[in-house]
Amino acid sequence: MGLVGISQEIRVNSTQHTRRLRNGVPQGSVLSPLLFNIYIHDLPDTTSRQYGYVDDLAIMLRRTTWSAVEQGLNQDMGILAAYLRKWRLQLSTGKTVSAAYHLCNREAKRELSVSVDNKRLEHQLARKYLGVRLDRTLSYKQHLEKVRAKVTARVSLIRRLAGTTWGASARTLRISTQALVFSAAEYCAPVWSRSPHVKKVDPIINNALRIITGCLKPTPVSYLPVLVGIAPACLRREKRKVESLTVNVLNLANKCEDLESRSRRHNIRIIGVPEEAGTTPTAVSKLLKEAFELEKEPLLDRSHHTQPKPRPGERPHAVVARLHYCLDCVDILKTARERKGIKFGGMTIFVFPDYTAKIARARTAFNDVRRLLRDIDGLRFGILHPARLRVTYNGVEREFTSPKEAETFVRNLKRV
Questions:
Q1: Could you read off the pLDDT of 66-102 as tens digits, one per residue?
Q2: Spatial separation of the C-alpha atoms in residues 274 and 326, rounded to whole Å
Q3: Radius of gyration from C-alpha coordinates of the chain
Q4: CB atoms within 10 A of CB 14
Q5: The Cα angle at residue 111 between residues 108 and 112, in degrees rounded to 5
Q6: What DSSP character marks residue 121?
Q7: pLDDT digits (tens, 9 = 90+) for 388-407
Q8: Could you tell me which of 187, 199, 210, 207 has the C-alpha nearest to residue 234?
């Protein structure tokens, strides 16, 4: 892969050397990760699950026997190796290793036999992936020992800054500790926060807090976070974990919302249909043909009331109908927007898209703003999918996703 006409140039004083790149992408370019992801977008499917971050690719296979794991991994590695050869991508066999994660202590020294191009991959008992060392039992003991050593070295730097006669101020030490110590101590904290080996790191963090405050060893550990104004390490890790889980939950909720919205693309919501009119697909199809003066009855997959039968004197509930063809749905909604209320046969019906409850609430939140907009001359507005308010005034177009921001904008217009 690569870009045409790319070259690299090295300059040292008055000496320079230029070399043309035949493949690859420029190192350090902001577009390089994007171009690489586009290039391997058609990566073949494998039995193993694939995890990728930029140009780092990992595959994971779960089986109950060692032979099944080795057979599956060898097969998948063969598929990936063939793909890489086809598209002239070189696999770094020196950096490609295998690892096993299990709780069977009798097989603690067991090594996987996985090969690529007739070369057996190195087996590592604790492989480092994206900065986290994953041991066999996922206890993160080796990783936290490395973190402890790294944090200890950085605390030594803080101690040097806090000289007894010329040392930095408490504020400077606090900022430096957050930048140097906590950044290293909390890297990927949601992954290993429940490990029993966390206690290897916490005492080193407490030493940094003692340096900031000038407290001695006898000072209770519980006092240090209060004196420094930094939350305890355990609470900071829990906060990071909650934030990570919140992001995952929101992503899943958005995916569910998107799936539900896509499933309703062929739906229409009809308001004003009397209860006695019937809600069978045949009855609703006939009603739509008469109301919209269609050449033939549209094909409906199903139709039903949104709620149980209303009490006497209450307004009839809306009817949801799913049209078989998307074009029929688009044409009906377009005509409904143009004609507003459709009168026929002694009744008036309104037809709207069938939005999800979340989108319907978001669109309804703009109702007060829309009432204010109707009082301004020369202004055009409309609600865009899923819930965006577009306002055009004096040739200037603006969009709002927050009703409060839109209301502030409208009130400022009225003052002018």
A1: 999 999 999 999 999 999 999 888 888 888 999 999 9
A2: 26
A3: 32
A4: 5
A5: 130
A6: P
A7: 999 998 888 999 999 999 99
A8: 199
